[in-house]
Amino acid sequence: MQVMAAPRTANFALPWLLLTGLLLLALAGCGQLADTPAPARQGELDLRDWHPQRDGPVELSGQWGFYWQQLLQPDELPASPPAYAPVPGYWTKYPGDLPATGFATFHLRVLVEQGSRALAIYAPGEGSAYTLWVNGERLGSVGRVGVDADTTQPARHRRTYFLRDHDGELDIVVQIANFNHRKAGFRNALILGDAEQLHTSQRLAWLADAFVIGMILVFALHYLMLFLFHREDKSSLYFSLLSLAVGLRASLTSQGLLLWLAPDAAWPWLLRLEYMAVFLTPAFYTGFMRALYPQEFPRFLLRTLWALGLAFSIVTLFSSTLFASELIPAFEVVYFSTLLVMLVCLVRVFQRRRDYWPYILAASALVGGLNTMEALHLTGRLSWGNLSHVGFLAFLLVQSLMLSVRSADKDRRLSQLSHDLEERNLSLQQSERKYRELFEDSQDVIFLADIEGHILDVSPSCEALLGYRPEEIVAMENLDQLGERSERRRMFDIVANEGSTLDFITRLNHRDGYGVPVSVAATQRRDENGRLIGFQGYVRNLSDRFEAQEQRQRAERLEQIATLDPLTRCFNRRYFQDASTREIARAGRQGSDLSLILFDLDHFKRINDTHGHATGDKVLISIARLVNSKIRSSDVLARYGGEEFVVMLPETQVDQALQRAEDLRAQVESVVIETTKGERIGVTVSLGVAQWQRGESLTDLLERADRALYVAKKAGRNLARVAEA
Which of 30, 142, 303, 503 is most buried by a 10 A CB count? Predict the structure, then answer.
C-alpha cells in the first residue's frame, strides 16, 4: 500500500510569495508625491522653485490662516493677521480645547512660477463638508457647509479641481464644517500639481484601487460558491465573509470607489456600513483560522469576538454618526487585545507545524511588512505607503493559494484512499486469516463485546489468565463472577463517551478465587452507518508490574529507614557522614568553599524534666521542620544525636555560614511551642560555625564546630560562634 503524500506547501509558497510581493509593490507605488520644498509659514507657501512636470505633485501643508467659527468668503477675509493652524491636522488638537463640532475658514497664499502649465488641486476630503475657493473663484464643494447640524450636510468624495490662469499666485480659501464625526478639521492636505500629470496619477490610483478591490471581491464570491457546494467546510464561508468585509471597507475608503458608483448614497449610512465591516472583521478572521486550526484557536475567542462585533454594530446602527465615531477608540483597545491573543494562537500553529503553516507564515509576513511600511508613512519617515487594503490583498492571495492547495490535497487524498481501498479489498481475506492467527496465538486476551457489555468472542489466552475456557466466558449470562459490575460499566461508559481507553486498570476474578490485576485497552465498534454496536480490545496481565511496584516501594521504605531519623524525619547521623564525606571530596577537587553549622537546643533536659518527653519530642520535631524549611536544597540537615543537629553548607564561606546561623537562631527564638498540657514555651539554640580547610577530615571539622558551640554555650547560650582556624 502506498503512503499518502503530505501537503505540498513549501513547493508553492516561495514563488507565489515573491510574485505577490512584486505585484503589490507595483500597486502601492501608484500616486507617490514629491517632497514639499518647505512647509507654509504664516499662511504663505513659496513654490517658485517647484516645477510641476519635473518634481511631481506636492502637498499644501504647513501654517494656514485659521478663522474659528467663521465661514468667510475670499472677499470677506479681514485685513488683520489671523491665527495660524497646522494643516493637515485636527482642530481638536489646536490650542484652546476646541470641540469636534464646529466650523472654520482656512486661508493660504501660494506663490508659484509664472507661466507654468495648467495646474490642478486634488482634495481627498475634509471634515464632514467643505467648500473651496481659489483666486476668488468658487471651484466646488463636497457636502454642504453650515453653522449647525441642521444646515450641514456631510459627504465624502475625492475631487480634482482644475485651475485657471494664476499669474504666479494662488489665493486658496477653504470653508470646513463638522457636526457628524469625532475627527474634525483640515484632516488631509490638498495636493497641487500639473493638471495633466495629477489627473493621470489619480486615474492610475483609481485603476489600482479598482484592481485590488475587484480581486478581493472575486475571492469573496469564489469562496462563497465553494461553501455553497461544500457546506461542511466553514473555512470557505469565513474566508468569503472576511473578503467581503475588507473589500467593502476599501471601496468606502482609499479612493472611495463605492462613493463614486453611488454618489447619492447617504453619507451617514455609508459610514455606519464602513464601521460595521471593521467591527466584524476580527470575528470573520478568527472563524476562518478556527476552521483550519480548531485546537490552536479556542471557541471562546470566536464567540467573544462575535459578541463584541455585533454589539458595536448594533450600537452603530441606532446611534448618530458622531457617537458611532467615538466607538472607534474603544474598539481599538478590543482589537489590539485580540491581536495579542491571536498572535499566541499563531505561534502555536508555527510551533506545532500544522498543515499549511508556511502559507500562514507567508501571509503574516506580508501583512506585517506592509503594515510597517504604512506606519512609517503615517509618521513621515516614508514618502509613500498607504497600503492597508493592498496589504490585505497580499493576505488574500497567499491564503487563497493555501485553500487551493488544501482543496487539491483533499482530492489527492481521496484518490489515494480510493486506491488504498481497492488494495485493502484484495487483501481482506488474507488480513482476516492473519487476524484469526493473531487472535488464537495472542498472549493478551482479545475480546469482542456487544453494546451491553456481553462477551461475543474471546481469545483462548483467557484460560491462562482467568482459568475459564473461551466458550465458558461467552456462555456467561452474568459477568459479575469475572469482576465488579460497577468497574465494568465505568470502563464501557468511558469508551462510549470518549471513543477509547488505553490503560484502564482493574481486577478480574480467577476461577480459583483470587484477583488478577489487569490493564484493559478498548475501542468502539460501529456499523457501516456509524452506529455504536459494541466494543473491542485486549486485556493484559499486570501481575508482574504490580509485584515490581511493591518491591520498589519496599526498597524505598527500607532506604528511608536507613537514611532518616525516625522522630524528626531529617537525615540521620550515618547518612550525614556519607554525604559530608562526598562534599568534602568534591570541595577538595574543585577548590570550592564548604562550611558547617553544629547546634543543639539550650536546656533541653530541663524541658524533658519539666514538661515530659512527649513535649521534648514535639520540640525536636518542630525545630527540625523549621530549620529544614529555611535551608537550601543543596544543604544537608541531620540529627547528630539527642538534641544536637548539624547542617552541611556547600559553596558557602564562613561569614555567609555565620549569617545563616544567626538567621536560624533568630527564627528558633521566635517559635512558641504548645506543650501536651496546653502550656506555651519558647526554646533557643546555640550554634557553632566552622569552614572546612584543605586536607581537613570530617572529624576535624566537627571537632572545631563543637568547640565553637561550647564557646557559644559558655558565653550565655542563644548565640552563634565561629570556630578558630
Answer: 142
